[in-house]
Amino acid sequence: MVGVSGGKFPAIRQHLEEKIGQVYKDLDLRQACSESKTDPEAYKTAIDALQPGSAVIIFTPDSTHYPIAKYALERKMHVLVTKPATQLLSHHNELIELADKNGVVCWVEHHKRYDPAYSDARGRAADLGEFNFFSAWMSQPKSQLETFRAWAGKDSDISYYLSSHHIDICAWILQDKAVPTRVVASAATGIATSEPYNCVPQTEDTITLMVDWQSIKSPKHKGTGVYTASWTAPLGEGVHSAQHFHYMGEKGAIHIDQAHRGYDVTVDGSGKTWYNPFYMKYTPSETGHFDGQRGYGYISIEKFIDASRLVNQGKAKSSDFDKQGFPTIRNTVLTTAILHAGRISLDEKRAVHIEKKGDEWTLV
Fold first, then answer.
1. Are residues 19 and 58 in the same domain?
2. Residue 13: is it exposed, middle or buried by C-beta count within 10 angstroms (0-12/13-18/19+)?
3. What's the structural domain count of the chain?
4. Is 288 inside any structural domain?
5. Which domain holds residue 49?
6. Does any domain span residue 287?
7. Global pTM?
8. CA Rg value for the chain
9. How far is the C-alpha of 114 from the C-alpha of 297, rounded, in Å?
10. Is 62 among the domain residues?
11. Confidence class for position 2, pLDDT limits 50, 70, 90
12. pLDDT single digits (tens) 121-172
């Protein structure tokens, strides 16, 4: 484990001991982390200590994903980077090229692809004919503005941070069926920049991207995607992330409410909470051991490690996984294209077009 601020590691160790070491049996929490300095390029020291074919997992602020992933790929490391893969489409295209050049796995940690409901919905959408409409809502409570004040509105926005989930799901459902052609963005403001949050003046509260999709097979069929994300949702909703999507094809519709899975717990004083053990089961097994291996949050990382091992053993090529529905860096390029186009649309107050020139996607 490596991070910028070594001074945070004592608190991190304590947190891991309380939440993991004291909850599950037989887990080794030892870490070889320096607590003596602050180093924005500490990742280089860590990556340089690894052998080619090692796995690098990146969960860092959005603006740092590209340089860390690039450094690792150039040294023939397999990379799993949290969403959004990059903020710029050109950077995403470069990571595709680097992964291909070095024959290594580079995936984006879009764990919702492994949610059994979302995966099943993708399969059922295939029988609903041409795409017509998709809407998604995802929000987190205002308290997140306290957590993310250091970078909110400066280095990234709520669309990159949250809408990346459902934009990827929509692009995954529509893979080889439709492509995005135009993006228009709109934003609500005023809460994040006011008391008590006082984020920088350019911080948006809620961002909506409206995307035109063109059918690949039928010129007359066009669809619309509307993706909204907010970090100014009410406190006390009982969920960390309110989230749902609605998909409509020419022969039917699909609706998923991921926030409420028919499972809630009410406790005196704190009220009702909706849990999602399908993502990760945090309660221990009957023997007291970790028991979250069946959750799609765990599976997302497990699949990446499995793919990396297969490539290391010569049993697969990194490009093989592009054809299998995994969130490879190549398969997720349209998610970045839409997010980047949305940012440009907000900044320049215009529609942004997405086009394919040769083998590369570009923004116009």
1. yes
2. middle
3. 2
4. no
5. 6-111+298-324
6. no
7. 0.95
8. 21
9. 8
10. yes
11. confident
12. 999 999 999 999 999 999 999 998 988 888 888 899 999 999 999 999 999 9
